[in-house]
Design a protein that fits this description.
single chain; mainly alpha; 33 helices; rod-shaped
Length: 545
Amino acid sequence: MAKSPIDEIAQLLTHEAPERRIAAAIVLGELKARGPEVIKGLVAMLETGAPPLQRPALEALARIGAPRALPAMLPLAGARDPDVRRLAIDAIVACGEEVVEQVKARVPTAQGEERKALDAILARFGDRKDAVNTLLANLEAADPEVARAVALQVRPRIKDADAKTRRMWLSEVTRILEKMKKSPPVSPIPIATAVKILGYLERDEGTEILLEYARDPRAPFAVRQEALIALRYVIAKDEARTADVIDAMVDAAEADDRMLAQAAIMGLAAVELPAKHAGRIARLAAHPDPERARIAIEKLSRQPGGEVTKALVEVVAKADRRRGELAAKALETRDDAGPALATALAAETDADRANTLRYALRPHTKKLPPAARKKLVEAALARLSSGEGWQAHADVARDADSKSFAEGLRELVAKLKRSRNKESELRIALGLLARTEHASDDDRYALASLALRASHLDTRPAMRSGDEGLTQLEALADRGFDVGAALKKDKALELEHLYYAGFHFAEAGHPLGEELLTHVMKQAGRTKIGKAAKNKLGLASAGEG
């Protein structure tokens, strides 16, 4: 009887030339030939122990699916060659569910790479309870490397699993975690791996378990870390537990264990926080560790919503200067930041924080609503009246509503003039008023008069050149203001003040000098100041002559 083409190709599987054996294995695999001679020839290639022959034979067996070849394939799950191990897994899985029992039987004695390969095979049958049970039950006895490998094998199976299979996994994972809780393994990695798998399931029922591990200060770092990583997915999927999850992550981020804190912070940074809960990380923005604070502030800055803006304003208003400046920077581009910052500044009594709030508010000042502008002006005037930490408030009030601020200052000046022991506050208020675009010459003169009263009245040139009162009077005279008339009717000034001003203007050759000195001479008569005025007039006239 003539041989079939398949039989003739199968004969080449035992040919002395390796390249022909390899070619035959490839062809038979493509054809999915299942004959006894084919299987026998492929097994013979496996038994050579030569990876170049084993690899094509295993590829062919993976296409064919040959339970009869299992005795030869199973030992290769622990082969030294990584490609042989990988292909052996595919070929064994291709035999179908009947391999599960044989794999389970080998697991207790398997170690290292073979154990990883057997776990990978069981993971491929992730919809079978006995396979899952074996996979998880042996976690507690697995070395850390093998346990980590289990998670990698399981993830793609769970990702594609239906709801029924996920429920089965949840039940089995929960059971094995309870078992390991009662009798903890030597290494924390098996528990951490089970927690990781629990996270893959993304089931609401697992959230409470994950929270328990994440919050447990006695749990090993690896376990808490995996719980925190798994909880990231809860934020997006379990709205009812989002607040609890964020709080647990923030608690961990505040921990003394820097590695745990780093894991929590990275977790928070990686997820999109719902706007209504984003403010929960605000307390982390004030953490003593500047790096944790910086990351928290940066995270807040990328989150939308009024709650986040409010949280950032809280940082500016309550944290130290460094953190406040970071938060202020984050607020620059937030359109809704103005009113909240204005409210915070209006209530702030600490000068340093007020200053930080001022810089944070500056980009928003022109867009503030009327009510916020009014609040700022009132706060600035109140601070000025008390003389305590007014600079930041006044600066912002002037920018926010210059006209209202000027009007308020004018009223405050009138009030302060009637008060005793308020000269310092009066001088500040007048100085601010004089520098506004809404100041009148009368306002500017009031400031000059106050400065003149505070002068040492030293007529030496060097002293007069830096005298604020004289400088202001010169500016008013240049504007056409009748300085002489104002000085002469100013009841707050003495003849000594008028003599000093007259002396200065006479030295400058200004007509105002003669006017003032003549007035002093007439009013003082033969007194010392009257004689001084007369002498200065004489010297001035002689100089002109």
